Batch of 4 targets.
Target 1
Amino acid sequence: MPARLVVLVSGSGTNLQALLDACTDPAYGAEVVAVGADRDGIEGLARAARSGVPTFVERVGDHDDRAAWDAALSEAVAAHRPDLVVLAGFMKLVGPAFLGRFGGRTVNTHPALSPSFPGMSGPADALTYGVKVTGCTLFVVDEGVDTGQIVAQVAVPVEDDDDVDSLHERIKTAERAMLVEAVGVMARDGFSVEGRRVRLGRAAR
Ligand code: GAR
């Protein structure tokens, strides 16, 4: 049976698209069973719909408080019985209810080399700092901001004439490949987390 993926998005969904494309090959070993979002009208949801994947939206503003939103998001995700939850450009921090249910099997992709430049503006912060190399990180989500155990990282050069958009696009090209590769291995061969270290593959089981 392919691993069941629920993917959460907030924007254009190019990382989601890379997963949807990979999942068309049965040998990939995973299936996107639902796509969720924290807002309506985004291209990520349209990509899911075009692939015939069910979608759901849980907006923070539709709930009494952040905890109620977190509980509702958890319920919506649980309804699709995921083996793995993938945050792919999901611009919200999940909370205790979500982590209680899906902690240890939720990964997030971030456009910087952790632990550098956590937060919402990884590419801009890398440019401002002046680093010559940045990249992308896939990590197991915990209660912090981009602090979880690292599953995979890919380095990306910063060019002298980069602006935020050109750098972010170069990072995203690497990020999509990293995400597809790592999620595929996790789905097919499993993974384990020991302290700060993540082991991928059959040896991890
Ligand atoms: C990706 O670069 C992802 O790492 C980033 O948003 C982009 C989404 O692109 N996420 C964050 O910055 C979260 N801290 P996409 O919607 O085209 O996949």
Target 2
Amino acid sequence: MSNEEQLSLFDQSALSASTSGNVNTELIPTDAKIPILPGTYDSIVPIAQHCNVCHRCDLGATRTHAVVGRGNPNAPIMIIGEAPGQNEDETGLPFVGKAGQLLEKILASVKLDTQQDVYICNIVKCRPPSNRVPAPNEIAACKPYLLEQIRLVDPKIILLTGATAVKGLTGNKTGITKIRGTWIEWEGRLCMPILHPAYLLRNPSREQGAPKWLMWQDIQVVREKLAEIHA
Ligand code: URA
């Protein structure tokens, strides 16, 4: 299927109808087997429009908003989380709840600005019911959107927060406590698995070796790498 044919599946009337709650579902692809080819999108805006009318998996049936991304779409660092939670589903923005506030603090601690240095998104764009881990078929259905985001943002560094992000993007099933803090290469891109901020919220100790301490080590390494790339 050509890109044009693929795009025509997302009929414009369906896009505007989606805001009034009267979506003509026949016009929206319901089959995740329909490919979304690399190069389909020329900016993030149509990705967001399509995600908001997407039914490639069942998560589309229960979302309030698709959560596509926030930050600088030309940022040198892309942060990929797992999936939207309740706050994100309500606002349409990733990492705006408690985990997101902690993420902001972590970035600020090494003078990284979320408006300038970072673009934040998730492995899946719609909230899984009860915040469960997204299922493999949901990750697969959503992955073309993520791959298009990575292609368009073209980050120098990708941070993968938590095991679902690592496995969802790279297929690497190594446990996050083992793989965090190590640079891995995916499709020629530099990626750093880090702990998920929600995990830090459940483990508040700052002692040496504790999750917060490990995050502090990792984010400094990322900061140094960015300076090296920009030098
Ligand atoms: N956790 C995530 O992984 N992503 C969000 O957007 C919010 C919380």
Target 3
Amino acid sequence: MKKILEIITEEIAAAFKAAGYDEKYAKVTLSNRPDLCEYQCNGAMAAAKEYHKAPIQIAEGVVKALIDSKILLDVQAVTPGFINLKVSADFLSEYLNKMSEDNRLGYEKAKAPKTMMIDYGGPNVAKPLHVGHLRSAIIGESVKRIARFAGHHVIGDVHLGDWGLQMGLIILELKGRKPELPYFDPDYQGAYPEEAPFTIAELEEIYPTASAKSKKEEAYKEAAMQATFELQQGRAGYQALLKHILQVSVSDLKKNYKKLQVDFDLWKGESDAQPYIPEMVEAMKEKGLAYESEGALVVDIKEESDTKEIPPCMLLKSDGASLYTTTDLATIVERMKLYHPDEIVYVVDKRQEMHFIQVFRCARKCGLVEPDTKLTFLGFGTMNGKDGRPFKTREGGVMRLEYLLSDINEEMLKKVKNSRPMAEEEAVDVAKVVGLSAVKYGDLSNQASKDYIFDVDRFTSSEGNTGPYILYTIVRIKSILKKYEETGGCADGALIRAFENENEKALMLLLTRFNSVMETAYEELAPHKVCAYIYEIANAFNKFYHETTILGTEDETLKKSRIQLLVLSKRVLETCIELLGFEAPERM
Ligand code: ARG
């Protein structure tokens, strides 16, 4: 369906033309004075220059041409030359009825679908998920859903961190504990065991132990670096251990992401990109782009317009070891080869921005991507505690994701039990569903690039701009609809009638913005725009609800019309929260 602003713009364009002016001046926007009008056109001001007339004169001419409009009512020219617009009640309800009939609520699919890869999550294997990874998972999941809803072919890749020093540390520590295992015997020729020689609980203990040791003992650290190097050179026993570490770690990660309703299409990692490195580096050398500098292999990526120093991109260290940058470049090579994306979006902590500037520039300069392949860095800010510093546990350690979620669920459970009596089991389930909305909405309602304060009290409150408030509104609609059905009501096929009061009209106007909000949220990769939209709808709906009789309406067709408006509001809200990555319970 055409967006409502497009329809109005066409109407105004016709009026400009009829009044003898160029249509290009007919740009319509949402009004910045909602007390006076709903939409406005300021084109008369710009047209005044071309036609050497007073803007108000032009505005009046356009207004005159709109006298018979079926879409616009009460159009006014206001000094110095604004055109204030209001839509007619019939046009508004007609638009909503068309939305109701459409299974995409009037939002058209992209005409030229793109293949988009979203690189998000980015957990490091064998290290527990911490809150830093939470934002990437939440934002990336929502961006993926928004892009998919827009009609694009979207591939979400978790891009595991499975190629760093942490692997060498684990191997070394394990070797100290169980030296008899065949993985450590360089002459071993047989097949390695199927089963991993550790559980996830052991693995999660091994890494921090080894990491602490390496900080104290220089020799231990060097041995770990050596093990990492040998792993990277392909030592068979270590490769087999890597497989075990991955298996155990990934099945645990999958469990955690499932709880978050985060779902990846690909479970690839840094290690998958390694085979592409030698050829990639060779080609860069051959093209004369990569050269040796102080023993390391680098590519210059400075550009004339740079206002700050952009250091060269390092590909190989003097000992031949590859780096984080090398891996990301090789991952681009792999992705282009296997999936041919038109765009790759990286949802990563904004403190890694310089790394991605280097990777993107180097990829372009060396022709790893097509000239029109878009590389997008969606950097997010830090999640802080109430003290304004990066979120920590009460003891001051790094907060693990599970603890954070259980804190939220505990607080939510208290609130749920206080709201109405219900069985323990139901309360636990409801608290989980609502708790997830608290965490996700608390995060997504902020512009991604900004830091924000994680405030359990505020996020779990059912009042204010929170996930639980949105869910309360949806549950309220569900309960009215249920009551209506239980008393034998059926509004199938009924039409939404013209509004009767200002609150109803305000709700209707908001609903018509659905397709335009979806489009902006996709274009700007901005879930916070979806949050802001549903917060406005929830407010408008609750106002309408408090001042309007719904089930007690005497006039049957009016009652049905109101029920239909509720159904449409619910569909819009539910579609939006699905794009944010959470859902509403039946009751709260
Ligand atoms: N594993 C990385 C970290 O924990 C994040 C990975 C981000 N994605 C990427 N392609 N570099 O910091």
Target 4
Amino acid sequence: MKPAFTVHLLLGSNLGDRAALLAVARQQLVAAIGPAVATSALYETAAWGREDQPAYLNQALALATTLAPLALLAQCQAVEQAAGRERLERWGSRTLDVDILLYGEAQIDLPTLIVPHPRLAERRFALLPLAEIAAEIQVLGHRCTVAQLLTNCSDLLPVRRWSA
Ligand code: X6L
Ligand code: MG
Ligand code: MG
């Protein structure tokens, strides 16, 4: 049997019916990638990078998978496409973004995929949902846990738990 890895993804949406888009994305990701191990709450988060944009809903998701990293990336991108994502401008608003934060304990450095996500430590919108489901995981390259990255994160943009 192929070994299964636990992968941690970050889902984000700031266009359309954000919560519905994330719910459909979760189902499609489980079908394409593997069973859910943990799911964080939804968080409403101020847009990073382009602060004139609508707020995001972000959510962290842990899945068990036997897919290799680039096959996993392809499935994440297919689910973004299914949500009607258009890449109009860098850092622009989007119906769905699916980012790979962690792939087991692997460090991956390919032209199209870097894991752990290189900007993870600077973004409260990713660290807070991830800490809810993976506080004690070690983040390679940083030599500390997700909880410690969150404690040390200087990002001040608002991130709060969201309910419909
Ligand atoms: C200077 C200028 C320093 C821009 C950093 C940071 C740009 C993050 C883009 C930056 C800069 C990004 C999400 C988001 C985006 C999301 C929230 C990005 C790419 N994705 N804001 N902004 N949630 N809250 O998922 O992350 S665009
Ligand atoms: Mg992103
Ligand atoms: Mg992305």
